[in-house]
Structure formats: structure tokens, C-alpha cells
Amino acid sequence: MKRIIETKNFAAYFAMSPAVISTPHLYISALATWQEQGILVQRWRKKFCKIPSITGNQGFTISELNILNNSEVNCVAFSPDGKCIVSGSDDNSIKVWDALSGAQLQQLNGHTQQVLSVSFSPDGKCIASSSRDNSVRVWDAFSGAQLQMLNGHTDSVTSVAFSPNDMHIVSGSWDKSVRMWDVSSGAQLQMLNGHTDNVTSVAFSLNGMWIASGSWDKSVRMWDVSSGAQLQMLNGHTSAVMSVAFSLDGMQIVSGSLDMSLRVWDAHSSAQLQELQGHTEFITSVACSPDGKYIVSGSNDNSIRVWDVCSGAQLQELYGHTYTVTSVKISSDSKYIVSSSHDQFIKVWNAFSSTKVQAINRHNGGVASVTFSPDSMWIASGSKDKSVKVWNASNGTQVQALNGHTQQVLSVAFSPDGKCIVSGSRDNSVRVWDAFSGAQLQMLNGHTDSVTSVAFSPNGMHIASGSWDKSVRMWDVSSGAQLQMLNGHTDNVTSVAFSPNGMQIASGSWDNSVRVWDAFSGAQLQILNGHTGAVTSVACSPDGKCIASSSNDNSIRVWDVCNGAQLQELYDYSSFVTSVAFSPDGMWIFSGSYKKSVKVWDAHSGAQLQELQGHTRFIRSVACSPDGKCIASGSDDHSVRVWNTSNSFQLHNLNCYAFGVTSVGLSPDGKCIVSGSYNNSVKVWDAFSGAQLQQLNGHTQQVLSVAFSPDGKCIASGSEDRSVRMWDVSSGAQLQMLSGHTDNVTSVAFSPNGMWIASSSWDNSVRVWDAFSGAQLQKLNSHIYGVMSIAFSPNSMHIASGSEDKSIKVWNASNGTQVQALNGTSPVTSVAFSPNGMWIASGSKDGSVRVWNAHDSAQLQELQGHMQSITSVACSPDGKYIVSGSDDHSVRVWNVSSGAQVQVLDGHTSFVTSVAFSPDGMWIVSGSYDNSVKVWDVSTSAQIHRLDDHTHHVTSVAFSPEQTYIASGLWDNSIRGYAALRNEQFDDHNMWRSTIDGWIVLTEQYPLMWIPSYIHNRLHHPFNTLIISTHSSFCIDFALCIFGEGWAQCYNP
Q: Which residues of the chain have pLDDT under 50?
């Protein structure tokens, strides 16, 4: 019976390992290398005397359960009995899962924004959750009913935790506070102030007496629960603290930080006991095991690591997630680890057995005003064309056109419930509309001149309006009656705003003043003087303490509502400022101006953070979405724009061209390469054999860019003949010719969903085409010089374009609106999105490669090394590396996180025109003016083929999705294809291979063994399932090796 059980356990182990797809001999040898010490294994091991014995600290084996969520998962937690897992995600939902089967048990809906933290009560009866909607909610864990909504935080609530006695909840927020709540009544018991920046994480000690909190201010603080007093401030981290946890006995606190370290602190003396280093990017989450033995950490490096509490030694490195690990937790019995990630997976790791548990799986006139609906789903705009229009904020489609005004619409606003829209016009009227049907509900008459500004009160019952008749008026929404007329301004009133509590109204005027009024008595409370020109716009801060005003004196001023003191003066020296708005958290101020740009300011320091460029005429209005994610701007250019606020060895040398190669690319599966050349042709090659599969002729001038469709069945090419053409890979037939560009087409790209083709041109435009019909869907105009490169984001939602105007612009692919403008100091020649869409790589003529945050336009890295202009950049499939080609004849590989240069691939004798990674990250393909295409294996350098067929320069190459074919474009106007020689015996098996970092892997997710560099260069991997030495015999000292979770076997030949 014992042997049967042992055999069963091994079968389960092997069946769930990646080696299961390999040949039978691997199954046999894996048995001999299994970690267990049973009789069956010991006897079988004698049959394999050449398999080395392994010594060293192996720790414990981890296996996993995968649960696929439909949105990015931000947080997870175990139930006390370990039977359930709760998760919170970007789709605003909370889900409860069966921990063994992975089945979904509950979905808890209620939050209106992303769920950032979840926690089970110690008795398992309740779940607490927090969200970007500023609320904490308590749920019945069995019925899914919402029991409490705890309101008080004024910004996103990032973390929640139950007290050990189930009676209290602690929460941390971006409002810098830690709050404690009574679970039964929902009352706020304590507000703990001290942190000077966003609070990211909170935790109770096991005895319930203390609270630990971590913050962006780089500190960890400990608080007394009963008094709210701060007991300790733990300083040492050099960057934001992202997660905190108490040890079992409450004597220690563990913290993880953006500085990539874990630190262990004595909770009572504040002494630092341990600093644990190993993660290669910032740490997002930490947890202590209930048995007090282990610490678990999750990181942006996609890994989970397990640490020994006593020694600080790293016991395990768990790979499986493909994007940032957002949260880690340990079950109450310390047997399981649960992790969540932005890859949408929740994984459960069995800490002791070696079995995987389960796999689950536009206006005809200038736009004067814009505003967001409260739920951020809609945008309303008012225009000189006399209409009010309602737009879908996510895709830019027009939902409603509200017609009735007889002159220009100057101002629009949504009611707090999003059901109504109010508008003011040059026809002297205020009108109220049904936001859904478009019906006019009220026309409020009384003003004797143009109505310049309108606003709803926070309760939606009243409307304030300002007019060129110098008055401010307040109206009853339901009856349309005028309630108040506020007189005092001596010139046109340009802007009105309600305070957040609805008790006051702020107004701005051409008399250079801002005035504050009592909304109910009509009394003037404050007159704020300081502007030296007309006040164009006013806005109240979310907390009601400040007013921001903009003016024709080119300034923005921030005022204290209570005493009228001027707190800040923000200068836009170049032009009149026309509009201001606060972000929902009060941290930023947005402004629009005659300079045609939107600027983002720090509300506290007055520093300018961003300048968003794209409008071609004066900006009249700016607004921020309630969730803080988007800015809308309206302009005299007739547009509304929405902006997002957050071994170097050569493997191939394909010397087949008499003229330069201008572009190269790989198919999604890495089996094909496509190249374009100055001989006007495109060629498709087999990536393995180097055989030419196709030559695609049709272009009448040089082919400058080629790309494969996501399914590998089609190729798109762009040429100096100004056309984009689409080809069938198998037959070589031309499927479409897309005409419209008026100058050379410089770059083409398929959207990842295969629906669209994007193209860029020297005509300064980016165009989006329907991949099936060939119809032009969008023409994106904003660049003022030729567009050199384009790239789709991984989710197909955005297009990045790089231009000779030194800018990178990010566009909404579906509606053509500009989302971001990233401004550099040199013409941009190439752009590429990271696999997770979080950053953009760019190359420019100054020889630098830059890395940008795709959401807030911040520059993250500047990579220096090339001596001449960069011609092409590409990102590795795992997002860890960037490859760049340059006029200096070199190809270089860079580490994204550190900015370090990893490889210099020298071999080309002229300009490198195009580079690309293979889908599996094993190879880099490059094209050059030296008429060659070279394929590089960054770890082994073996040359496989030389493709001899082009008669002119190759301009572009690409791999097919299945990594079988190579396509190339040439100066002879042709496109050619080549077939690869495949080892049929091993077609159905994954290949063992070595990586840049020295790991032998089966796939990128399953590292087997790390080997030292002196061995690394001596290994060779033909396309089979064995790792074979390139030498007759050599010895590996396994004491110098590290074994990964997917390690199955290794021969000592």
C-alpha cells in the first residue's frame, strides 16, 4: 500500500509538471531525481548512477492552484479555516472562491471603483473591503449581503484589516490617515494622524492592542489601539513602504518597500533586526506565517519569495505570475500561500506537497465647456454650434445631442446623480436636460445677458448660474423658480461653483475678483482680491477649504475660503489661463490656457507637473473625472480631448541582399521572419532553416516596414509608394491595398486583437484601418512633422506614435482621441509598448533609448550607449529587456529595471534598420543597410542559416506568430517568405534552453536550474528536450547551482 501511495504521489507530481509534455525517458529519469526518499525512488535511483546527487538548502517544494479572474486582481485573503479565498479586482467586484477547487462561490457588488484590499473576519463570518471609491464596506461572507458602508475617508482606501476579536476594522487611505471603525454600528472610533503621505497598508497585532501602518512617507508607524497614540516610528526604508505585517507574537513588524527590500523591526524598541534582499523590483506585499517561521513577499518582479524568519535566508523563489504580484497571504495552518497579480490570476501554492492542487481556470464650432458625469462614464460638452453633446468617455462615441439653445452654449454641468445636465448660453437662458433621453426638463429665464457658467449643488436640488449681467443667481431645479440673486460684481461674472457642502457659492468676474456667497441668505462672505486681470474660472477643492481661480493675468491662485488669504500663485507666463479644476483628491490642479495646452500642478507646492499638448487652438474648459483617471479639455479647435492622468552571440547571419534591409519582424510564434528592403520587396523566411517561403511583389517603391498579423496568416507592409498592403502568408496573394497617405509610409502595425492596422507616414499622420475591409477608420493628426514609428498597446486600446517633432503621442485606438503627449529633446525614431502596457520604450536621433510611464508621461529611464541615432526598439516578451538597433552598426540589449546594458551584438557593417524579439524571447532578429538579416541567440551565439535571395537592401523583417516563417521587405518592391527546417521528431515538445540570466528553463515560467557563467557558454541546445554539452565531457559543481521550481532532471554526461 505504501508503494502504491508513493507511485500515486509521483504520478500526480509528474503529471502537473511542465516536463509531462516531454519524451518518456524524462519521466523515468525524473523518478530517479524526485525529492521523496521512498523505497521505489531509492531503488530506481541505482539504475541512474550518472545522475548527480544534489546537496544544499532546497527548502520546501511549492506547487500551485490557478484561478483566472476577468480583471486585474489587486488583493487576496484566506478565510480563517483556509477553505475560501476572497479577492478584489479592478472590475469593482469582490469574489469568493473555493480554495481547493477554485470554483467561484460569491460575487459581491457595490463598490463603484477598484477594490484595493479585502480581509476575512477572524470568525470567518464577515468580509471587509476597501476601494478607490473612498469607502470601506462590510459583507456577510455567506449571503454576500452588504452589512455596512463606512464613510469618512476623503481619498482611496488602500488597506483594511479586522481586529482579532472581530469587533473593529482598521483602514488606511491616500488621505494620509489611519481610521478605526466599530463593525456593528459602523461608527468611526479613531482617526490616527501622523503620516505625511499616502497610507498604503495597515495591520492589527494578534493581541489586538496595536496597529501597524506603512506609508509613502517611507515610514512604518505603530499605534496604540485604545488611545490612538503613536508608539513608534520606524525609519530606514529609502522609498515608499507598500506593505506591513505583524509577527505571530506581535513583537516584530515586517515591511516591504519600493526600495526592493524587506525589513524586520523590533516593534517596541524600533530597532531594525533584518534587511532581506533578493527581489529585483519593488515589493508590493508581505505576510508572516501563523506558525512564525516564514515571511512571504510579492513583488513587481513577478515573483513570490519565502524567507526564514530567524536567519533571513531565502528559502524559495516562486515563479508563475506573468505580471506584478499585488498581494500575498498565508493560510491559518501555514500550509498554503495565496497570491494575486495583474495577470488576472489568483494562485494558491502548496507549501509542503509536491503536487499541483488544481488549474481553474466631434461639434461644428468651438467647444466652450466640458464636464464628466459623476460615474466618469460620460462627458458633456457645450459648443458654439449651439448644442450640448454627450459622449461615451471610454470610446468617444456620441450618445446624445441636446438641441434647443438659440445661441452658443457657454457652460455645462452634470447633476450629482448623473441623471440631469444643466447648460448656460448666450441666449440668456439656463436649461435642464434629461441626460438619458435628451429631453429638455426646464428653461430658467431671468438673466438679461449671456449665461457664462452653471453648476449643480451637491444635493442636486439647486443650480447656480453666472452671467454677463454681473449677477449670480440660484434656482430650484424641480420648479425652475429663482431663489436668490447675488449682486456685487461690477463686471461680467465668468464662473460659479458650489462648495462641497452646498452652503457657499464661489464666483469669478471680469472685475478681477473672486467672491464667496452664502448660498441661502445671499450674503457676501468674502471678496478675494489679487488678480490683475479678469478672473476666468473658479473651482472649490474637494474638502471645501480652498478655492482655485484662473485669470487673464496668466496666473492661477489658490485661496483660503475661511480667511480669504492667498495660499498659492501659479504662473503660466505665456498666456491667459481660461479654466481650472481640482483633482478629486485635491492634490492636483488642472488648467487650460490660450497656449493650447493643459497643465497639471501640484496643489500644495505649486510645482508644474505636466503639460499636455495636442489642441491646435485656445482651450476654453478643463474637467477632471470623479475617479481622477482622466482629464477632459474643450477647445476652439472644435475638439474635446481626453487625457490619461498616471552572451551576445550571433545565431544567424542572413547575407542575402545587395541593398540595405530597412525593417525586420518576427511572427507571434517566432517561427517566421519577415524583412523589407530598399529593393521594394518583402520576403518571408523560415526562422529555423532559412528557406525563403514567399516573395511578395507589388510595391512600386522601397518597402520601409513589415509586420505579421497576430494569427500569423497575414503580413502588412508600408512603402515609399505611400500605400499599405496586406498579404496572405501561405499563398503570397495581395489581399488589400490601403490608400490614403500622401507621403512615405514609415511604419505599420497590427493591433493585438487582429482587427486593425495602424500606419504612420511622413504626411504627419497616423491612420487606423479595418484589417478586414480595408476601410480607413481614423486619421490621427497632431504631430507637426513626419511620424516615424507606431505601436499598439497589448490590449489594443492605445496607439503610441513617435515623430520628428520630438514627441511621442498616445492615442485612443477606437475613437482617435489623444490621451498622452510625451515630449523629448530629439526626434523620435522608434516606439514600442511593454507587454503589460505600463511603459513605452522610445529611440531617438540623439542615440538614447528612453523608457516612459504610459499613464502619467514620466520618464523612467534614459539608456545611453549607442554612438549614433537609434533606428529601432523592441521589448522582450517578459518585459524585462529592451533591444535597440542603431546607425552605429550595433544591436544592444538593456535591462529595463536597472537601465544596465546587458549585451552589445556587433556584426553588422552598416546601419541597423530594424530589430525584433522572437515570441519566446530566445532570439533577436536585426536588419541592416549591409544587406543582411541577422538572428541572434543572446545566450549561445550559434549561427543556423544564411538567407541568400534579395538583390536590394532589406528594410524590414518579422517573425510569424508560430515562429515558423520569416518575412522580409526590400528595395526591389518585393516581399519574400522563407520556410524553416523543423526537427519533426520534437515538434510537439517545448525546448530546454538557457536564458540571459543563466537559467536553464523549459518555458519562461518554469526555471529549472541556474548555472555559473563558466558553464553557461559551454551548453548547446538543439531543438529537442535534452540539454547537451558542446564539449565531450565536463563537470558541473552543483554547489554553485540553484534549482528552480520546474527542475526535473539533469544529466552529467
A: 16-18, 20-28, 35, 50-64, 352-361, 647-660, 943, 948, 978-991, 1003-1005, 1013-1014, 1016-1040, 1045-1053
- What residues does 546 pair with on adjacent strands? 560
Record the pTM. 0.38
Residue 476: DSSP 8-state: E
Write out the three cell numbers for 904. 552589445
- 2 phi and psi angles, rounded to 5 deg: -60, -40
Q: Indicate the SS3 state at residue 1013.
A: helix
Candidates 920, 261, 916, 768; CA nearest to 933 is 916
pLDDT for the residue 583: 87
Helix 24-32 / helix 2-15 crossing angle, nearest 10 deg: 130
SS3 946: coil
Q: How far apart are CA 145 and CA 711, in angstroms?
A: 44
What does residue 1006 show for φ and ψ, rounded to 5 degrees?
Answer: -125, 80
Which among 871, 859, 962 has a CA at the least distance from the CA of 913? Answer: 871
CA distance 358 to 120: 23
Alpha-carbon span 671 to 978, nearest angstrom: 10
Q: Where are the beta strands (DSSP E) in 342-459?
A: 345-350, 358-360, 367-372, 378-383, 388-392, 398-402, 409-414, 420-425, 430-434, 440-444, 451-456
Q: Among candidates 520, 483, 479, which has minimal Cα distance to 499?
A: 520
Q: Give which of 702, 706, 729 is closest to 716, Cα–Cα.
A: 706
Closest residue by Cα to residue 590 from 550, 535, 530: 550
Which strand (E) or helix (H) includes residue 1034?
none
In angstroms, how far is the first alpha carbon of the chain from the final one? Answer: 36
Q: What is the 8-class DSSP label of residue 62?
A: -
Instruction: Cell numbers for 230, please give them.
Output: 503613536
pLDDT digits (tens, 9 = 90+) for 677-699: 666 777 776 655 556 777 778 88
Q: Which residues contact 437 (CB under 8 A, 6 or more apart)?
A: none
Cell of 878: 517578459
User: Of how many residues is the chain composed?
Assistant: 1053
- If we measure between CA atoms, which residue out of 867, 718, 866, 716 comes closest to residue 787? 718
DSSP string, 241-293: EEEEEE-TTSSEEEEEETTSEEEEEETTT--EEEEEE--SS-EEEEEE-TTSS
Q: How far is Cα 169 from Cα 183, in angstroms, rounded to an integer?
A: 6
Q: What angle is formed at CA 819 by the lines to CA 814 and CA 822, rounded to 5 degrees?
A: 135
Cα 941 to Cα 647, 651, 938, 1011, 1019: the distances in Å are 7, 5, 7, 18, 11
Task: Give yes or no for a contact between 266 and 240, defined as CB atoms under 8 angstroms apart.
Answer: no
Contact present, 467 and 449 (Cβ < 8 Å)? yes
* Residue 329: exposure state from Cβ atoms within 10 A (0-12, 13-18, ≥19): buried
Dihedral sign, Cα of residue 89, residue 91, residue 97, residue 102: negative
Neighbours of 817 (CB within 10 A): 23
Give the list of residues 6+ apart from residue 47 with CB closer than 8 angstroms, or none.
Answer: 32
The per-residue DSSP string of 15-37 comes to HTSGGGGS-HHHHHHHHHT-S--
**SS3 for 89?**
strand
Please check whether residue 682 is in contact with residue 675, taking contact to mean a CB–CB distance below 8 angstroms. Answer: yes
Return d(Cα 896, Cα 913) in angstroms, integer: 22
Name the DSSP letter for residue 624: E
Please state, in angstroms and rounded to a whole number, the distance separating the CA atoms of residues 613 and 23. Answer: 58
Q: Which helix (H) or strand (E) holds 604?
A: none
Closest C-alpha among 568, 502, 492, 483 to residue 536? 492
pLDDT at 647: 36
Provide the phi-psi class of 434: left if phi over 0, else alpha when psi is between -120 and 50, else beta. beta
User: Is the CB of residue 104 less than 8 Å from the CB of residue 97?
Assistant: yes
Residue 853: count of CB within 10 angstroms of its CB = 15
Amino acid 352: pLDDT: 44
